[in-house]
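Batch manifest, entry 17 of 40.
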Amino acid sequence: MFSPKPRTVCRPRLEFAALLLLSLAGSASAVASLDPTVVSAAADYSARHRGVSFLTIQNGRTLLEQNAKAPHKIYSGTKAFWDLAALAAAEDGLLNLDERVASTITSWRNDPRKAHVTIRQLLDFDSGLEPQFFLHETQSGDRDATAVRARMVAEPGRAFIYGPAALQVFHQVLKEKLRRDSPTHYLERHVLHRLGLGPQRYLADRAGNPLLATGWILSARQWAKLGQVVLANGAPVVSRNSLAQCWRGTAANRTFSIGWWNNHAAPNGREFDFEQMLIPKWQNQNWLDACLCRDAPSDLIACIGSEGQRLYVIPSLKLIVVRQANGGSFSDAHFLRLLLGRERR
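Output type: C-alpha cells
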C-alpha cells in the first residue's frame, strides 16, 4: 500500500513564529522610561508648592531623588500599613474581612445597624459609623472603647465616612482576635519587618492603643517600600489576590478601598482635589465618578496624606512616586500631567 510522505514543516517559519511571539511578549512587558525633563518639571512644581522631598522610581531605577532620606510626617499614609496588617491577618485565618464585627464585639449585637457591620466596611469607611475626629488627639483616654460606643449615622454600606473611629474599632477586633499578642506586634512582624522597617510613632492613648489613622514619620525612601509591595503584587507581605481587594472601590465610594485611592474613572471621570473633598462633612461630599487625573492611567493608585503627602503607584508604568510637603496649594492632576508629559497646552 502506498504510504504518503510525511508532511514537513518549514523550519524557518517555525523559528520566525517563535521569534515573533517572543518579540510580542517583550513588547508587552516593556515600559518606556519617563522623560527626565518632565520628571524634573514635576519636581520643580512640587518644590514651588512647599514640597520638601521627592522620589521617582521606575523599573527599580531611581529617576530623580531630592531629600528622600529625610523623615517626614505621612499623616493618613499611615492607614495603608495597618490595612496591610488586616489583609495579612485574613490570610493567616485570624479573621475574615466579610465577617460581622458583632461576632467579636458582642455589645454590637443589640444594635440593629451595628449588628450588620463587617470588618471590610470598617476598613473601607462605609460602615456607617460617625467619624469621631477628636480621636486624633494624643491625650485620648481609650480610643478603642470610645470608638466602639460611637453612633451609627448611616446604614452599613451606604455612605463613605472617612475618620478614625472605624479603624479604632478594627483595632479592638484584631486585639480580641490575637488574645495574647498585640496588634502592634502583629503589624511589626507581618508587615514592617518584611519591608525592612522598624517600630513606628504610634501615638498611643492612655490605654496603650495606637492611633491607626495617622501619626507615622517616614522618609520618601521608606514610604516607597509600600509602593514596591504594590508592584510586586503583595510580596513579601500578602498574596496578589489579597492585595487586589484594595483596588475595588465600594458602592459608597468607587474611588477608595482598604487604604488606597484609585483613578479608575479616568479618562472620563470628574477630576478634583480629593484632599479638599475630605474637608466638608461627609454628608456634603460627592465622590460620584471621581478621579485624580483624567490624563493619568486608570490603574494609578495613591496613598493620600494631609498637607500634600502623596505616594503614587502606576503598575502599567512600573512607577513609584513619593512627594512630601509642608502644606501649600498642590494639584494632583497638574502634577501628574507634568510628570507624565501630558500637560495640556
